[in-house]
Design goal:
470 residues, alpha/beta, seven-stranded mixed beta sheet, five-stranded antiparallel beta sheet, 20 strands, 37% helix
């Protein structure tokens, strides 16, 4: 069974039995439940829902089912075509729609797809709202529109250009400084929608670019998660010395990783750290500011906390999941936040992870500093993070595992235990976080220390607990 219903949407592999995978019948059920939830919420009056999708092979099929279902419920559909997740989020706001559906399984392999559900602000549904949608889907007490009240279908492909313009107008994006730097970049867009929109951004910024895996055909050239083990192609290309920066995005362009001019990884955990450092440095120079706040999730590097404190700011941690991070950001009025997986959330643009925003801010910072990417990386605290995973079996009792882990460290005076999202054990010089994934049938075990050996050792210690209980 691959169908996963979580705070990150409804996702599964394509094909197979109903109730077990993402298939046409289940797509209709969840789309109908979402549409009826949006209508009953009363938070919109346009009767419009935006639909965008990444380039996955199954995307056309899923899009047709989703759009037809929305029209059957009585909603007008604005199909924005092949579009990034942040583009679709902005399109909801720009078109004053009642909500939106993004058809993408983000970093999951090609056989997966998903429905990411947005409210009228272009933001992901909260956990509570998502639970209501799932309950409505389970009950299947659906009612569809009669022939005189069916929705209409509209295609509007203007939002890529409007998204790029939104980025260029951000106060801390200095277009002229980036143009003057005459950057040369190499970009891996994994055969998805990044290959469509990123050239528009680079042309506006005066950046010379080479795109690898540019065709948006959904036949991913490698595992689409932007981790070092999957990126040997662009890393080798960077070693030719022809480029100032390497850029990698995932299929829906909400995650972002950089590669230094020498072909070494900048570190996806340091995407947010570097952009936050630039934002904090610029905003802390403004007189009369309250302490600036930043947010990341519990599985993200401590380096953001360190950088925030360097500028006299306040750092807060949230449970994993974009909506959890944005909720905490609003609570503390954070100027920037995101996730250590390469997700940058900059509220001046919108409350959503946005690789285009991250790229523009990073290039501006690099242009103003006048240094190499590797030199910029060397200015940040150097932590090492190990990212491990354990595949779940039907017999795995995740709750019992979490209880066992908490018991292991309950008597340790140096350990701070946080159980708002799985279990995180925080020590003075390292941490380890074990939690069930929102997007895959796995347990994630992330750990961080001053060396990779220390990080991996404490991660493997918790992994053994899981293996012993399976």
């Amino acid at each position: 069974m691959t169908l996963i219903k979580s705070i990150s949407g409804i996702r599964g592999t394509i094909g197979g039995s109903t109730g077990d995978t993402l298939n046409p019948l289940d797509i209709v059920k969840f789309t109908t439940a979402y549409a009826q939830f949006i209508r009953r919420s009363g938070k919109g009056s346009s009767n419009k829902i935006v639909v965008g999708r990444d380039a996955r092979i199954s995307g056309e099929m899923v899009k047709n089912v989703v759009c037809g279902t929305l029209m059957g419920v009585g909603y007008d559909v604005i199909n924005i075509g092949l579009a990034t997740t942040p583009t679709t989020e902005l399109a909801v706001r720009m078109s004053e729609a009642d909500g939106g559906i993004i058809i993408t399984a983000s970093h999951n392999p090609r056989q997966w797809n998903a429905l990411k559900l947005l409210n009228n602000e272009g933001e992901f549904l909260t956990a509570a709202d998502g639970a209501v949608v799932l309950d409505m889907a389970e009950k299947e007490q659906f009612e569809y529109a009669d022939v005189d009240h069916l929705g209409h279908y509209i295609e509007d492909y203007s939002f890529d250009a409007r998204h790029v313009e939104n980025v260029l107008q951000l106060k801390l994006v200095d277009v002229e400084a980036v143009k003057a730097a005459k950057f040369k970049v190499c970009v891996d867009t994994i055969n998805s929608v990044g290959g469509i929109i990123l050239p528009r951004l680079f042309e506006k910024l005066g950046v010379e670019y080479t795109i690898l895996n540019e065709d948006a055909n959904g036949d991913f050239a490698h595992n689409p998660e932007p981790l070092e083990k999957n990126l040997q192609g662009i890393m080798d290309e960077m070693k030719t010395g022809k480029y100032d920066l390497g850029i990698v995005v995932d299929p829906d362009v909400d995650r972002l990783a950089f590669i230094c001019e020498n072909g070494k990884m900048f570190g996806e955990e340091y995407t947010l750290v570097s952009v936050a450092d630039y934002v904090l440095s610029e905003m802390s120079n403004e007189k009369g500011n309250e302490p600036l706040a930043t947010v990341s999730n519990l599985s993200s590097t401590r380096a953001l906390r360190d950088v925030t404190q360097k500028y006299g700011g306040c750092y807060a941690a949230a449970a994993v999941g974009e909506v959890n991070v944005t909720t905490k950001m609003k609570e503390v009025n954070a100027v920037i936040g995101g996730e250590g997986n390469g997700g940058v959330i900059y509220p001046e643009s919108h409350y959503g992870r946005d690789a285009l925003v991250g790229i523009a801010l990073f290039l501006t910072s690099l242009a103003k500093k006048g240094c190499k990417v590797s030199e910029l990386r060397a200015t940040f605290p150097d932590y090492q993070i190990a990212k491990n995973r354990i595949d779940l079996t039907p017999e795995t009792d995740v709750d019992a595992i979490l209880v066992k882990v908490k018991e292991m460290f309950a008597a340790d005076p140096t350990a701070q235990v946080n159980d708002i999202d799985g279990v995180k054990i925080d020590f003075p010089d390292k941490w380890v976080h074990l939690r069930k994934s929102n997007t895959e049938p796995i347990i994630r075990v992330y750990s961080e220390a001053n060396t990779m050996e220390e990080a991996d050792a404490i991660g493997k210690k918790l992994m053994q607990v899981v293996y012993d209980m399976q």
